[in-house]
Design brief:
Elements (H helix, E strand, L loop, with lengths): L20 H4 L6 H16 L4 E4 L11 E4 L2 H21 L3 E2 L3 H10 L7 H4 L2 H4 L11 H12 L3 H7 L21 H15 L7 E5 L5 H8 L3 E6 L2 H13 L6 E5 L9 E7 L10 H11 E13 L2 H7 L5 H5 L9 H11 L2 E8 L1 H17 L1 H6 L4 H19 L4 E9 L5
Parallel strand pairs: 1-2, 4-5, 4-7, 5-6, 7-8
Antiparallel strand pairs: 2-3, 8-10, 9-10
Helix pairs in contact: 2-3, 3-18, 4-18, 9-10, 12-15, 16-18
């Protein structure tokens, strides 16, 4: 659609233009796109259970959490040009905000399927940005995508994660979840996965996605021999140090290796929230690799964030704010997509599945509270205010997805029959 009338980009003074070029400057102005965005957003706000104040005007909406749009002109220009990416960039540029950010985002997530009229959703391909080719999860692309997020700084992650350095949903016994319960809840999650995979003394275990080593340590303490693979140099270095400190170097090997390049046969495979980084194009290869590496009679226990299948089908080709700024190359699967691939392409069978999305909402709340409380320490590590707003938006955006029920997190068991048993 080439209906834009360009003007000199206006810069946001407080944003570093070198680090954040698309936040520091407004996108080229399109009168039509901006007008359509304003019309759609005002109409949506008028029928949602929130309050949206545009500039100094009276709030619109049906009541609920307040969203303050400080600069409506810039907000609508960004949303008109870049859709949800522009929505997130506008928050990063401080053009809108809320004292209840999670509340506002939860309302929007609850109504995600109907915010844009169905007739206009069919035109998504005309205006939605396409994913950059370099974000494809080839061997080289995967390394770059993982490094973008996980090699930011081990010290950064340590500021808001608990002492287990687990960066995935915890499993609480009850609610509300409290900060002092987070490490125990992470161990509960890990133990449940290891139990699903029947990991015990003598198990030959493969872990795809090392994190910072907590699951490998816990499996080794059960007597398993663990090969764990990662694409993050920062994670590999710290995981090796933690494993060494635990006295388990003889039982755990940490390799910097793509999962597709792993050789051997394993009694059990465990992978926690790694499939989200695989990319839809490579989902079949991921499950075929599990099939190849899992011995007959073996068990693979996965923890995966999932989204509704209809939303996956509607948005699978869209380039999102999360992909641009947080997880390049990432895409959440649906349960249906996983089942279809596993059934059609492998000898594996999905035999157990359990969702606990409310627990992820609480996990993210605790991370967000820790991150906010550590703002000074984050700044001291060299992360500027725009980064801190980006990270806060990411954590709140994710929390809202689980609070609304739009997202779920599930533990799944895949089994492989032993033909001679």
């Amino acid at each position: 659609m080439s209906l834009s009338v360009s003007s000199a980009p206006r810069r946001t003074a407080s944003v570093d233009a070198h680090t954040w070029p698309d936040v520091a400057s407004l996108p080229p102005y399109s009168r039509l796109r901006t007008a359509v965005a304003e019309r759609l957003v005002r109409h949506a706000f008028g029928r949602l259970p929130l309050r949206a104040r545009l500039g100094a005007g009276d709030p619109v909406g049906l009541g609920g959490p307040l969203m303050q749009i400080h600069d409506p002109d810039a907000f609508f220009q960004r949303v008109g040009a870049r859709g949800l990416i522009g929505f997130g960039e506008s928050y990063m540029a401080q053009e809108w905000g809320s004292r209840d950010l999670v509340g506002v985002l939860t309302v929007l997530a609850e109504h995600a399927a109907t915010l844009v009229p169905e007739s206009l959703q069919r035109l998504r391909g005309l205006w939605a940005q396409r994913r950059p080719a370099e974000h494809r999860n080839t061997d080289e692309g995967s390394r770059a995508n993982i490094s973008h997020h996980y090699d930011l700084s081990n010290d950064l992650f340590a500021l808001f994660l608990d002492e287990t350095l687990s960066y995935s949903s915890a499993l609480f016994r009850g609610f509300p979840a409290e900060q002092h319960l987070l490490a125990a809840a992470q161990h509960r999650k890990i133990d449940r996965l290891l139990d699903l995979a029947q990991v015990g003394n003598g198990t030959q275990l493969l872990e795809i996605g090392t994190g910072w080593g907590e699951l490998a340590i816990r499996a080794a303490r059960r007597g398993a021999r663990v090969l764990t693979v990662t694409l993050s140099r920062e994670q590999q270095e710290l995981a090796r140090g933690r494993i060494r400190a635990a006295g388990l170097e003889d039982r755990v090997t940490v390799l910097l290796r793509d999962y597709r390049r792993v050789l051997g046969r394993f009694d059990a495979i465990v992978s926690v929230e790694m499939i989200e980084a695989v990319g839809e194009e490579f989902w079949p290869e991921y499950f075929m690799t599990l099939d190849r590496l899992l011995a007959p009679g073996g068990r693979a226990a996965l923890q995966a964030i999932t989204m509704p299948h209809d939303r996956l089908m509607a948005s699978r080709g869209t380039y999102t704010w999360i992909q641009k700024y947080i997880f390049p190359g990432g895409l959440l699967p649906s349960t249906e997509a996983i089942e279809q691939i596993v059934t059609r392409r492998t000898a594996l069978r999905l035999t157990e599945r359990d969702g606990f999305g409310a627990h992820y909402a609480e996990t993210l709340r605790l991370w967000r509270e820790r991150f906010t409380a550590q703002a000074t320490a984050v700044e001291a590590l060299g992360f500027d205010e725009t980064f801190r707003r980006m990270w806060t938006f990411y954590l709140a955006y994710s929390e809202a997805g689980f609070r609304s029920g739009y997202l779920d997190v599930q533990q799944m068991l895949l089994t492989k029959e032993d033909p001679v048993a």
